[in-house]
UniProtKB/TrEMBL annotation, chain A:
Name of the protein this chain belongs to: Acetyl-CoA C-acyltransferase
Gene3D superfamilies according to UniProt: 3.40.47.10
CDD domains recorded: thiolase
EC assignment: 2.3.1.9
GO molecular function terms noted in the UniProt entry: acetyl-CoA C-acetyltransferase activity
PROSITE patterns: THIOLASE_2 (PS00737), THIOLASE_3 (PS00099)
Thiolase N-terminal domain ranges (all copies): 5-278
Top-rank lineage group of the source organism: Bacteria
Lineage start: Bacteria, Pseudomonadati, Pseudomonadota, Gammaproteobacteria, SAR86 cluster
TrEMBL record, chain B:
Originating organism: SAR86 cluster bacterium
Protein known as: enoyl-CoA hydratase
Catalytic reactions of this protein: a (3S)-3-hydroxyacyl-CoA + NAD(+) = a 3-oxoacyl-CoA + NADH + H(+)
Every 3-hydroxyacyl-CoA dehydrogenase NAD binding domain range: 320-493
Keyword Oxidoreductase (UniProt): yes
Amino acid sequence: MSREVYIIDGARTPFLKARGVPGKFSAAELAIKAAQPLLLRQPFSATQFDEVILGCVMPAANEANIARVVSLRLDCGDAVPAWTVQRNCGSGMQALDTAAQRIASGASDLILAGGVEAMSRAPLLFSDPMVHWFSRLNLAKTPMQKIAVLSKFRPAFFKPVISLLVGLTDPVVGLSMGKTAEILAQRFNISRESMDEFAVRSHLRLAQAQQSNSLSEVEVIYDQNGRAYEHDDGVRPDSSVAALSKLNAVFDRPHGKVTAGNSAQVSDGAACLILASAEACEKYKLHPQGKIVDCCWQGLSPSQMGLGPAYAIAELLKRQALNLKDIDQWEINEAFAAQVQACLAALQDEEFCQQELAWSSSVGVIDEARLNVDGGGVSLGHPVGASGARIVLHLLKTLQANKRKTGIASLCIGGGQGGAMLVENCDV
Amino acid sequence: MSETKFEGLLQLPNLILEQDGDNLVWLRFDQQDSSTNVLSKAMFSDLNAALDKLEEIKPAGLVITSNKKSGFIAGANIEEFTQVENSEQIIALIERGQSTFNRIESLPFPSIALIHGFCLGGGYELALACDYRLVNADEGARLGLPEVLLGIHPGFGGSARLIRLLGVLQAMPLMLAGRTLDAYSAKRIGMIDELLPARNLTQAIATYLKKKKAKRSKKLLFSFLELPFMRSLIAKRICKETAKKIRKEHYPAPYALIDLWQKNGGSFTDMMVGEGPSIAALFEHPTAQNLVKVFFMQQQLKKLGTNKKELGKKELRPTHVHVIGAGVMGGDIAAWCALRGMTVTLQDREAKFIEPALKRAAALFEKRVKDKVKRQAILDHLIPDIQGSGVERADVVIEAIVENLEAKVALFKALEPRLKPGAILASNTSSIPLESMASMLREPGRLLGIHFFNPVAKMQLVEVITCEQTEPQWFDKGLEFVTSINRLPLPVKSSPGFLVNRVLLPYLIEAVELLDEGVAAERIDAAMLEFGMPMGPVTLADTVGLDICFSVANILSASFELSVPELLRKKVEQGDLGLKTGKGFYVYKKGKAVKSKNISSFGPGKDEITERLLLRLLNECVACLREGIVENAEQLNAGMIFGTGFAPFRAGPMSYIQDQGVAEILNKFTRYQEEVGDRFIPDAGWQALLEAQKSEKNRS
């Protein structure tokens, strides 16, 4: 049994740049604040969801199965099951894919799905020596034993482990995500200048979108002091290649090309969508805005993880018997400028396409005028668990705005994977 | 599941006594024909019968609890106290209570009070007589000795026992302010022994009963504090603190309690014996009588919103409130409703208008809800809603936008077709006649005025306003809603200013007239504070905002004979709007009025100031009553007490008129009409009052 899967509506929080201190919102709060306005405008009540599925990579210690926490706090009620999915940077898209499959199979009719991340709240951890010292102290029974353990303490134990950095380092190949981008820049010969140009364009496009109010899916959120956050706050409308060129490489120091300016920002944010079957649309008189047609996941070497979209897009096109020119709009998540540019280069490289993707020729050229038209991770941030849901939602919004039918949203995934989702606008 | 088997020992009208397999006796209060337990004559007689039985059979232990959902025991039967004729009878009532509770305390086996819900006054005094107090955390509780609020103090040994338990420094402030605490706070300071989930109760009872009788020896520190010189030192200090809040001539009970302790605090028995005569003396003071009246007024208003059985059904109760306009009133109404457990959507045009409301709400929740999980739930349910999506979902839609007829009508017209069937539609207007808005709607009978007072979290009164067109079903729903958010609904007919603002305005204007004559603001305020108002009229005007006073004055002057003083106009034109601009009739620094040290004594004397202000207020009250703005004098009294804080110990303006004598007050009108002017012409309604009082005198 395979049924159509409709996107009914969606909303997201502004993406808030991490500024060196824990952000004002917990991950659960972000998801709740994205979903509340979305739910308020529906003709059905939150208790009528069949399930809630959220993607999240690093929920806080008090947010185990964060989807359930969010579901209960949204008043979906005790009876609505909720679960959390994790495919690293692909978690938000994974939640949509899983929800879509649950609907297609007939298991569910109405699902709240999305992704969330509060990266600014990633904890500092005690170092291994510190943890061992604590346990020994705990086990020491006599006062003499305790004194002996106490005397072993070294100030260096205090050096914390920054879990965010650990999370952004591949544990199998031992490379940070930034280094994998450096590898791609080298392989596809992407210059520092072109990366910076790409980054500037991302900022200018987002600034333009904010000015023309074309980010209608962004909802105002308020912190506990009542302060409102209305826009993605990482945008730099005054960004320029000259300014970006002054930044130092942060991953391959000091000679590399990937800088903080041409990488995605570390941010907090959430995006939620409502997915429904045709039956649910009829039952609640819902107007479907879009359709999730297919979703494809591919694996590749972790050291080249940024190329994931090239693999996933090629596979998706093949499976759906589509050509690049059949796709009207594109969203490829900007983890790194170099990484998106590498994907574009790879898809038009005949040798790469033949050897790596098993295509007879090159896949083709993606028109950059139709790619990330309102900015991307470099300008608005990449809260890892949320981005996959954000790009699908925004893809649908751009299809609607341009009165186009078909689009693909794709992202690279730490650990060496790529995901791509094919979306159709129902209003065309 | 194993179930404890009980064997009945006694079945009395107001309680059940039964024994379980472990030789424990359970005494369950269950007052007949009532949803709450109160300590009435009948209750005491049943309790004593039960104690006879207990003393005879000597079980291993006693558990005292209640079968009522509402709680343990809500207090003494206040009506019985109002029916006594002399102080001997009062002392007899008190001795009956004390001796009964002493019997509980001296039972030869341990006793446990197993508490849930209301455990107040005599109810908590009974619990204090038990060896241990356990609270069922699943249901929560409210505990304390609030007798002072009725003009008396604890009398069933409560003052002696609470001081023995907590020490004077902890116990006295609680009793002096009549503060009641939730179970969590009560546990923290030791008013109860344990707060535990229902599933642990059986085990906990077994554990406590093994402990045998509680040791009732005092902590050494407490005994030290009760040495004569310490007592007089502490009493003096507490008196000083109390005097900062209330005056002895207005509220003698707290002072009597301090006095009682200063004289007898050295001995538990003396303290107990002293309670009776002290309370008897308090009952002779009009304050106690009046505060009891106020208590009944409050009960009456509550009843207005709860006696409609079919509306009382839980599933029909409102759960979602949509507030439009996030200004001071709208924002605070939204916060209050959220605090009372509603889902609230708060709409305004832009985020920046909602921000201050959420900030105030967060501060309110922080103060009122200590439990973090509960506070989070409340915050989750106060949802900013710029798009106004909440309208379709709301059970109550309250408008609190700018006071402009066209804007309001346009809003209501847009709202009406979007409302859920059965949803209440209400305006929080303070000045626009309801009928002028209602008549523009498709269903004019639906619109209500639900008028809150500032600050919403403090002012208990809410005027529920109806006009000719209003359909009774919507009126009933409005009363029910106001009661459900723990406010007191006062039915008021639509007329400019409704009740509270209309009555207050001439009073405020008279204050401005006095200022204009050159009387110092400090003297005006002092006169009314001495009368018993919670705030002087000049400070009140500054706090409300002179622009708001001015606009209400203009609206009222169009309908009533009322001249708006030039001074008020000038202040508003100069932009000196009061507290909010830092300058009004006073100058404010950091939110506090700067009062001058050498106050000019220019102008009329204190009594004259008081009389002029008061006569204007009373005159408007009488006019409102004559016009039927409120149904009767009791409701008018309640409105003024709970809506403006009108000296509660005087039981409201109409009671004050009765106490002073109608004829005497009319004489004063004559005098001021001659000396000051025609604004002191008594309303036509005084004549009826005069005749009523005369005929009452003749009858008696």
